Amino acid sequence: MMHTQTKANESKPLIGWEEAASSEREKDCVFSGPSDSMASVGALRFLFCLALCLCNFLPSCQGSSHWHENKYPFIRNASSFSSPSISTTTSNNVYDYIILGGGTAGCPLAATLSQNYSVLVLERGGVPFTNPNVSFLENFHITLADISPTSASQYFISTDGVYNSRARVLGGGSSINAGFYTRANPSFIEKVGWDAKLVNQSYPWVEKQIVHRPTFSPYQRAVRDSLLDSGVSPFNGFTYDHLYGTKVGGTIFDRFGRRHTAAELLASGNHEKLTVLVYATVQKIVFDTKGKKPKAVGVIFQDENGKQHEAILANDRHSEVIMSTGAIGTPQLLMLSGIGPKEELQKLNIPVVLDNQFVGKGMVDNPMNTMFVPSKRPVHQSLIETVGITKMGVYIEASSGFSQSNDSIHCHHGIMSAEIGQLSTIPPKQRSPEAVQEFVKNKRDLPIEAFKGGFILSKVANPWSVGELKLVNTNVKDNPAVTFNYFSHPYDLERCVKGIRLAIKVVQSKHFTNYTMCDKKTAEELLNLTVKANVNFIPKHVKDTKSLKQFCKDTVITIWHYHGGCHVGKVVNPDYMVLGVDRLRVVDGSTFDESPGTNPQATVMMMGRYMGLKILRDRLGKLAGI
User: Fold this and answer.
1) Which residues of the chain have pLDDT under 50?
2) Which residues form the Glucose-methanol-choline oxidoreductase N-terminal domain (predicted)?
3) Contact 218/226 with Cβ under 8 angstroms?
């Protein structure tokens, strides 16, 4: 039996009430002068508004405020850690589980395991709670545009030339992504061999805590109607489930545009048994190599002041180091710890613990191409809310508008902002930091109308093009070299062409032209609007497949759904234990050979909860109560 739709997940019509909620909030926060006769209700309203405004204007540096300490007393800076020596280890300073990475999978995993065992989480970034660039939908693009060493996102450029990002903050990708929440295709659950009953327990555990129903903007309503008009049917209403047709999914942004990340799931853990260290950069995993197989015994990490510490596992065969550092971080850290292709490790003078040629192999990123939707009316900012799930191997999504907040980058394109490297106006190999800055400079001359529209996003599902990850040095803070080989397989290119043709139909739909108040444009006009004049080969006709293939190659960007590098059967076994060593497990998207569903975060969070429950059940049996 596959996972089924819960009662709270039934298809229902959507009502756009976000404007009313927003104006209500603004109305409530208009302060008048103090009065001796102010009623107690007025005083309470004033205090509520003051608190809300303070939340909206918190300093932008990660973890700079300590208001979260009451709810999360187990989170503290890495420098507070007291490293035990091996000769003095006691039950108070060793851990049953050490989780590397407090991300989308690591947080629910830690919360679950802490119900019965001592857990240490080591996260290289800070907390998301006090960072407005992380917390608010309107500032989504700012974190991705921030390339400073303390940013919540760490940008990297694949060898293909496509800009990308990896999380560097508690909550991981859920702290910097577009927020869309949708479950995996049932066939994915079956393929990876997960227990459907446990899956059905794990998804709702996440959803009840941090997932919301989107406010559903008029732009997204036009997307829905245009998808249906273009044949992407039926309409499945609001649902978390992966169903062919058009649907509206969940979001981790609430009705006020505030983000709720995987970090909030930590609050449901056992506070007495859970320790979360932020600004803790793991350098390597420590192994005991005296036995028949190498055995993980602890990790070495660096705190925010540059001091090194060692965290040690309890002397129990069930204790584990669990890697949840993501599709980039996990294969990178495995190799830095001595597990990977022997010849590559030796080139960098890394002592070889285990020769495994498959670490870092099978890296995949879902290529995305877009279609600009011009509009004569201002468009409210929205990220992904509506999705078209087709049977031809592409997903159609949409984003719109730009923010006008004081802290914002003015006149940006949201998900498609050049500031975050989504520079589809230049072929990948020509993209560079200088090219981005040049575009940002020149766009000041663009008319404001150029930023009133939105984009239709076409994503290739389950790409067949495969790449790899390699170390460039032994500094864990530096990005490894990552290659995705976008469109190297002809099947991916074939599906991209189909996706672009569908995106053109969507934009040409009467529902969009009525909403945007723009005349229906030809396919050639839409393509030219999308790429401007900078692309090296502009399609001359929508039926020219060769031209559309070139369009796909030249305008490819990412939607940040990369995965792979530690595949089941090659690097880990079906329970995600690392092959050839003891007490080391991987729980993250590096084990996937396809991205689950239209957007993976729901399943990655579910995986953290699921694996936590499974580990408890396997270790405690009936005593686990699962």
Assistant:
1) 1-65, 67, 85-90, 404-405, 533-540
2) 167-190, 326-340
3) no
Which amino acid is present at 162? V
Q: What are phi and psi of 189, to 5 degrees?
A: -60, -40
Q: Choose, from 309, 413, 511, 561, the residue flagged as catalytic.
A: 561
Q: Which long-range contacts (CB under 8 A, 24 or more apart) does 349-356 make?
A: 349/474, 350/474, 353/287, 353/289, 353/294, 353/581, 354/294, 354/580, 354/581, 356/570, 356/571, 356/579, 356/580
- Tell me: is residue 601 an annotated ligand-binding position: yes
By C-alpha distance, which of 74, 58, 65 is closest to 407?
A: 58
Residues 71, 68: Cα–Cα separation, whole Å: 6
Q: What separation in angstroms does the CA of 392 have from each of 129, 241, 550?
A: 40, 19, 20
- What number of other Cβ atoms are within 10 A of residue 484's Cβ? 26
Q: What is the pLDDT of residue 228?
A: 98
Domain ranges of the chain: 75-82+90-624
Active site residue 318: no
391 burial type by CB count under 10 A (0-12 exposed, 13-18 middle, 19+ buried): exposed
User: Residue ranges of the alpha helices (H) in 178-322?
Assistant: 186-192, 196-210, 218-229
Output DSSP code: residue 479: P
Task: List the one residue out of 83, 180, 213 whose CA is nearest residue 604.
Answer: 180
- Tokens representing 199? 């899956």
Task: Give per-residue pLDDT as tens, 25-74.
Answer: 333 222 223 333 333 334 333 333 333 333 333 333 444 445 467 889 99
Q: Which fold has domain 75-82+90-624?
A: FAD/NAD(P)-binding domain (3.50.50)
**Count of positions (residues) in the chain:** 626
- 495 belongs to an annotated ligand binding site: no
| Cβ-based neighbours of 314, under 8 Å, separated by 6 or more | 91, 94, 95, 96, 118
Is 560 annotated in some ligand binding site? yes
Q: Helix, strand or coil for residue 253?
A: strand
pTM of the model: 0.85
